[in-house]
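Here is one chain, start to finish.
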Amino acid sequence: MKFRVKIFLVVLPLIIVTLSLTEIASYFHAVNGVTRLAKQLLDFKSGELEKYAENQWELLVENNYAGRPDMVEAAKIAVEMYARTIVLSDTEIIFALDGEGNPVMSSSPLQINPDEKGALLNLLKTGERGLLTAVIDGEKRVFQSFFFTPFQWHILISEKSDVFYRDANQITIQTIITLGAAIILAVILLFLVARRLTDPLDKIVKAMNNIIESSDLSSRVEVEYRDETGRLAYTFNSMIEALDQAYSQIKRYAFDAVLAGKKEERIRHIFQKYVPKDVIEQFFVSPEKMLTGANRELAILFSDIRSFTTISEGMNPGDLVNSLNRYFSGQVDVIMNRNGIVDKYIGDAIMAFWGAPRKRDDDALQSILAALDMIRTLEGFNDQQRRLNKPEFHIGIGINYGEVTVGNIGSERKMDYTVIGDPVNLASRLEGLTKTYHAEILISEGIYAELRKLEADVRAQGLRFRLLDTVAVKGKTKGVKIFTVKRDLSPAEENAWPLHNQGMELYYRRSFQEAAVKFREVLALLPGDFNGENLLNRCTAYAVNPPPIGWGGVEVMKTK
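Its structure:
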């Protein structure tokens, strides 16, 4: 095999690969850019139309016209007219569907057959807000959608699929043609050049050594003769030029990598709304540990809005959602400001914990302070509710401390960073008992014992505790002491709470008559106090009919 043929077979793949990589990279950048711009336009229209519809509805609500069908219909017409103004092409259609999938608004004539209607409704009910595709009026269309609650409309901004992807398809064809032409031209040129290589091999070696030592890709070999060595020198120069271009491309890739790193930071920031920052950092460092769990001692908090069903029945959905969002915003800020992790929302309830993924010495104290701050924040929320003539919210909070399993629980496709274990269940039960004991906050003896280790900090925060009972929650036989806690006591409570706690000591020692005296003193200071009356009644009954031997003062709860 001739020397020039060997060079041809060696160099040609390098040229083809370089051209291919360059064209493919350019193709993906161009297609992604065009598609992204088209999608952003749909996103923009969707956002603007949604804001316009919300503004129309807010005008109705502010002027007390939301209950008038004629005014609501006028608002719907206004939304339809606005939709027509943002249509940019003859093939673009903006339309709305009711709950049955029937068109109730359209910027152009539209027919949806029953088969299309069912598939479209199933796609819309998933609640996805991204770019979706469906067959509409016999045509494959790309659309963005959102659900506008006041009108009960699914609003879709759609474009024909072939129109939407037309530029991307043209780029594909042009890329294939350009790459083919470039490869053919490269083959032709290489074949011609390979025949004319005549440079001496030693000059090629010297030039190569110079490039290695100086990293200067601008060095070239002088072509002196029209023989095989000359043709080799020419090919060498061509190869160096291609490498220089590749090096420039690598530098561009490095720049893109820096931009990708900044984009990763933005993604981290977005996901911190759903997953704790510490958890995200932990996952980036050790992604293989994402599905592992660990046993930790944590403080677990549950809070719940009392009589929420009654509240929700008396409010329209829009007002209810707005009120809940304001309520959750204030409560979650309090929890996170106290180093807590919001585990999940359970309807109107909030579950949070302290002690993972990062454990702190004062986790138990911070959970108590968070609960007190939540009560104070709720007062400000209720002030605003009264000004808006909306119902006030009242909550109960239960807090427990114990060993649980914490980690990412679920599957690779869907998981939650959460905690499980019996202490979690007890915290939930304590929240339910706040209604039974007429208390805003109930804590377990487990967290009370943990707070005793931080006695100086507890005193500095001015925390005061009142022992209310020993209960065995539903499903359990072992009793747990429960306390309520406050930071600012009234003058009457300052005197009554120590008397109540003394009465509880006598009560557990079976000194029921002496305990009854203490509870009467409590009621003299706090007339109508539920827990004082409850324990006084027990002491009075037990003084006449003492409980059996082995009695530990445990009250067994029959309900959650």
